[in-house]
Amino acid sequence: MTNKLFNSLEEAENFLKDQFGDGESFDVGIKHLFVKDLPVLCAYISGLVDGEALTQLLSSMLPDEEVDIEDEQEYFEAYFNFHGRSEETERKAYLLAILSGQVTFITKSGYCYVAELRNYPGRSPEEPDNEKVIRGSRDGFTEGISQNTALIRRRIRNSNLRFELHKISKIGQTDVALAFMKDIANDEMLDKLRQRLGQINHDGLTMADKSLEEWLFKQKFHPVPFVRYTERPDIAAAHLLEGHVAILVDTSPSVILVPATVFHLLQHAEEYRQAPAVGTFVRFMRYFGTIMGLLLLPLWYLFATNESLLPETLSFLGAQEKSHVPILLQVLIADIGIEFLRMAAIHTPSPLSTAMGLVAGVIIGQIAIDVGLFSAEVVLYTAVAAILTFIIPSYELSISIKLFRLVLLIMTGIWGADGLFIGLFILFTYLCSLRPLQAPYLWPLIPFFPNAMLRVLVRFPMTADALRPYVVASKQRKRS
Fold first, then answer.
1. Which tens digits make up the pLDDT trace of 324-357?
2. Long-range pairs for 356-363 at CB < 8 Å and ≥24 separation?
């Protein structure tokens, strides 16, 4: 193999003009320069390189004396002594290097060299909105994959931390990195992920990590998330040390963590930023809130329409005021209406969000009660159910809970208590059947692992001797 790709500078220039067009793209730089006395053809994408660093590098190589060029390769390597220099041996790889933001040099005899001067546009690390903590770091992942790997390496200073780079899709050529601890992560799981990455035959991953999830796990129409997303480097680092694999996708500020169970999706960094007793209390509250977020509306509707099921002491749970609109229709309209409000809040500009909240909460809610469209109890319990879904750290799981709640509510409305229990049985069976990456979705509840289940329920002190989760099949289960 050799890095000689062309026979002359003219052939290289014609190749580039054939690929990018002659002056058709203003951001493509194709320039004749000198490395000392050696003429070269430099090609780059202006918006993806560090222009200041490139200028300083070239300025330091201005010809200052007459030098005989005997061996062109040795001459270039001697005077272009740049730490981020590499070679390309194929024209396809040479073209991809330009498109990836690297600066390429073709010497007069056609030898190819690549300089790592990438500087992708993006924002600085900041705390993610959906994973905030009271105490803890305030940095978060950004859209740049190189910056994201650095944020993880800052927390895990170990040579066994690997970032395995893959180019995914035929046209988009998206950078995807598998991050894992070589001495901890399961090799079989890594091979399976590599195989699935190699099987992706698509033109591009425009939706970044979400597109990749659907390709890797064949999600199809499954409503529940098969992976855990995080924008916090500390969470990603903690999972890597447990034996999980992190998948970083360029242009995405979220990192995919696999394998993931439903209990991983319910964890939050705040539990580990507080004392173990407080963290356990917060965890119990979150589990209880998640279950009630699923069952509150179906149970309230069942009791409101079957007062015989309520003991006298709980008679206040039923509907106190009669309405011309059936209760089931009220609950469905109110629950779906909250989804409309959530969607409107996402698309409403920040200066108008306060006004939108006043319109939704005061005008629509109060007037709907006054005109008899909703009873006050329906508004109350629907609002409580909505708040309970907001406590779920995983946005994808919270949407799934809302969808399951609507299905249970409809089944309860049609078949009563039988419909509710049949719906819960079907839901439980469905969750038990899921095994993304061969990891049971309800582990350690199903199959039942007592010690692991205890650690899921209780936030043990860091000093407690813990094993890595069995579900990740780590090479080393002991952590200390």
1. 778 888 888 888 888 887 777 777 776 666 666 6
2. none
The residue ranges of every structural domain in the chain are 9-115, 129-258, 272-438
Measured N-to-C along each axis, helices 276-305 and 376-390 cross at an angle, to the nearest 10 degrees, of: 150
Check if the beta carbon of residue 134 is closer than 8 Å to that of residue 273. Answer: yes
3-class secondary structure for 187-255? HHHHHHHHHHHHCCCCCCCCCCHHHHHHHHHCCCCCCCCCCEEECCHHHHHHHHHHCCEEEEECCCCCE
How far, in Å, CA of 148 to CA of 141, rounded? 6
Side-chain-facing half-sphere of 125: CA atoms under 13 Å: 18
Average pLDDT over residues 129-148: 85
- CA 149 to mean position of chain CA atoms: 14
Rounded CA gap, 424 and 311, in Å? 23
- Vertex 126, ends 123 and 131: CA angle to 5°? 130
What count of other Cβ atoms lies within 10 Å of the Cβ of residue 337?
17
What is the DSSP secondary-structure string of 441-468?
TTTTTTTT-HHHHHHHHS---TTS--BP
Alpha-carbon distances of 167 from 174, 198, 199, 217, rounded to whole Å = 5, 9, 12, 18
- Angstrom distances, CA of residue 109 to CA of 11, 74, 134: 10, 13, 60
Alpha-carbon distance of 235 to 147, in angstroms, equals 16
Q: How far apart are CA 76 and CA 73, in angstroms?
A: 5
pTM above 0.70, yes or no: yes
Q: Would you call 49 helix, strand, or coil by DSSP? A: strand
From the list 394, 386, 291, 293, the residue with the least C-alpha distance to 341 is 386
DSSP-derived 3-state class of residue 33: strand
Which neighbouring-strand residues pair with 256? 229, 247
